[in-house]
Structures are given as structure tokens and as C-alpha cells.
Design goal:
By secondary structure, this protein is α/β, with parallel strands linked by helices. The chain has three helices and nine strands. It is elongated and about 95 Å long. The relative contact order is 0.14.
């Protein structure tokens, strides 16, 4: 059998429960704030950085970032992780505000180009160098246009023919070669 409680006793229990719950919530909020602070100090201490030719690359979420002027560039690899391929390429300023056509046999490499040149070029458009095998009704372009061609090959090469840039290599190396191309046009490689 249950005891009969007065309104005063009921109100007293309710307030006690509210104070206990409020105290628990305040403790949780303070502990989580403290945890965030401690975690942020730990992250800053373990940031991986690489210095290369006067540029600082910082590893953030498995991507390497560096800032040049007003632009932040994000790469899958830093310059010390890619094969050095000597190339005679035009610099990034030749791509400012103009359309760039792209043909790629590797999606990740293509995304690497978009991510790093997207704020610089007027627009990207898929295109074909030759009519045969051209997909999705893409236009056929030649080397009088700014054209980046990424394709699989047995030998790693990056070269320029008029306004066409060819990035060629084994499938597993195409993203590294694309980063190498970007290092050259950004004048990170010298």
C-alpha cells in the first residue's frame, strides 16, 4: 500500500529530482567541452607537415594542403611522395579565366584536376581528342584548345603539345602523376 503524500512533499521531491537532473546535464556539458579542448590540443601536436621549395604542406584528413596566394590547393600526395618527372609545361596563369577541356581514363585523377583548378579556370568540359570512341556526345577538340588528357600507358610521362597536356602512366600511378603535373604548373617543382 502506498503512502499518501501531501502536495508539499510531492513538490519537494520534484524539485530535488530537477536539481539532480540539472546537475547531471551541467556536468555532461562541462565534461564534453573539456574533452573537445583536450582533443584539439592533441590534434595540433600531431599535425604532419612537409616543407618543399618554400611551400608548407599540411596533412589534413589524408590530403595534403598548401596555400599559394589567395588559393588553397589540396593534393592526394605531397611533392616528396611522387616520382619526379621533368616536364616543360605552361604555368597556372595560362589557365586563368579560360575553358579547359578534359579527357580522363581515371576518375580520381580527373577529380584532382577539378579540385585544384576549379577556382581558376572559366569552366571544365569533357571532350575528345579524336572522334572515334567519343562518349556522351562530347565535342571533339584539338590542341589549339586548353586540353588535359589523362590516359593509361606503360611509361610515366607528362608533356605538352601546343595547348594539350598529356598525363600518361600506369593506372595505379595516375593520381601521383596528376599531382606532379599540378606541382609543375603551380611552380612548386622547379
Amino acid at each position: 500500500m502506498r503512502n499518501i503524500e501531501s502536495k508539499k512533499e510531492i513538490e519537494k521531491k520534484r524539485r530535488k529530482n530537477q536539481i539532480i537532473i540539472g546537475g547531471i546535464l551541467i556536468f555532461i556539458m562541462m565534461a564534453s567541452t573539456f574533452g573537445i579542448l583536450v582533443d584539439s590540443f592533441g590534434k595540433n601536436a600531431n599535425v604532419e607537415k612537409v616543407e618543399y621549395n618554400g611551400y608548407e604542406f599540411t596533412n589534413e584528413n589524408d590530403f595534403w594542403t598548401t596555400t599559394i596566394g589567395d588559393y588553397e590547393f589540396i593534393f592526394k600526395y605531397n611533392p616528396t611522395q611522387v616520382e619526379r618527372i621533368d616536364a616543360d609545361l605552361r604555368y597556372l596563369n595560362s589557365y586563368y579565366g579560360v575553358p579547359v577541356y578534359i579527357s580522363s581514363e581515371d576518375y580520381v585523377s580527373e577529380v584532382e584536376i577539378y579540385r585544384n583548378m576549379g577556382n581558376i579556370v572559366e569552366r571544365f568540359q569533357g571532350a575528345c581528342l579524336e572522334e572515334k570512341g567519343c562518349k556522351e556526345n562530347w565535342p571533339t577538340k584539338d590542341c589549339s584548345n586548353n586540353f588535359i588528357i589523362i590516359r593509361k600507358a606503360n611509361e610515366s610521362k607528362i608533356y605538352q603539345d601546343e595547348n594539350c597536356v598529356f598525363i600518361e602512366g600506369r593506372e595505379e600511378n595516375l593520381t601521383q602523376l596528376t599531382d606532379e603535373f599540378l606541382f609543375w604548373i603551380l611552380n612548386i617543382r622547379k
